[in-house]
Design brief:
The structure holds two protein chains of two kinds. Chain A is 49% helix and 15% strand. Chain A is an alpha/beta fold. In chain A, α1 packs parallel to α2. The mean pLDDT of chain A is 88. Chain B is an alpha+beta fold. Chain B has one domain: Histidine kinase-like ATPase, C-terminal domain (Heat Shock Protein 90). Helix content of chain B is 36%, strand content 34%. In chain B, β4 and β5 form a beta hairpin. The chains are: A alpha/beta, B alpha+beta. The interface between A and B is medium-sized, with 23 and 27 residues.
Chain lengths: 118, 135
């Protein structure tokens, strides 16, 4: 996928697996010199505060490594639940699906000014 | 008065048990006829409380009951641990307060996702959180 990494999260990860993903992904950003990361959570039937924090952490780490993260494919029931839980994922860019997420990243990179996509 | 139509329990001893607990709760919620949003809310609340029992309580049990109350159907879950207990219940129910490394959303967040919420804790004995959601 060129400059972008696509990560598809599977249903019902346990916590250690989620933490290992964080390690693997930050390594992959460096090795592949990725400029963008798409995290596809369309297969996730729920996101609790632990997973939400993991996603936010990945986004923050990627930003420090000069890569932008877009969270794609969140199911509506998951979005409703996350907000009620109190986790609104501030500062995380989202898109409805992988294709739109990719366009968001491409748009941000073609700006070439190093700012995060709005 | 609600009638109990089924019950069971399973251990919460490790992370894999949290995953199994979520699957059990999803199935119970589906069988009770919850909407997809309500299933998701209930499973998410269960996930928060199961992790609390494991991380702060050192492990415990998930006990569940399926309920009938007239035409209403519901599911009640009890998360029990034998950990250190919570000294200040009010503070533990405050958004953003955490005794550990968490976000402090577990208890107050879970409370918002269910219809009924009970928190019992005795220092040195353990903690029990009971949540109920009705269709």
């Amino acid at each position: 996928m060129g400059r972008f990494l696509l990560v598809t999260l599977q249903v019902d990860m346990h916590d250690q697996l989620a933490l290992r993903l964080q390690d693997d992904l930050t390594n992959a950003i460096q090795v592949k010199e990725a400029k963008g990361v798409l995290i596809d959570i369309s297969a996730l039937e729920m996101v609790d505060s632990f997973m939400g924090r993991m996603i936010a952490d990945i986004s923050g780490m990627a930003r420090i490594l000069d890569a932008r993260t877009v969270l794609v494919g969140m199911q509506p029931a998951v979005a409703i639940t996350l907000v009620e839980l109190g986790l609104s994922l501030p500062g995380i860019d989202t898109a409805l699906n992988v294709e739109r997420g990719m366009r968001l990243l491409e748009g941000a990179l073609s700006d070439g000014d190093g700012h995060r996509p709005r | 008065m609600a009638t109990v139509t089924g019950r069971g329990e399973q251990p919460l001893r490790n992370e894999h048990d949290i995953v199994l607990g979520r699957q059990t709760v999803r199935q119970l919620a589906r069988e009770a006829g919850f909407s997809l949003v309500d299933q998701t809310k209930f499973v998410t609340a269960a996930s928060e409380l199961a992790r609390n029992a494991l991380i702060y309580g050192g492990g415990g049990e998930l006990k569940w009951e399926t309920l009938h109350d007239g035409i209403r159907r519901g599911v009640r879950l009890s998360f029990e641990d034998h950990g250190p207990g919570i000294p200040d219940l009010e503070r533990a129910l405050t958004d953003g307060w955490s005794s550990g490394t968490g976000l402090g959303l577990g208890l107050p967040g879970a409370r918002r996702l269910v219809n009924e919420f009970e928190l019992h804790s005795t220092v040195g004995v353990g903690t029990r959180v009971i949540i109920t959601r009705w269709k």
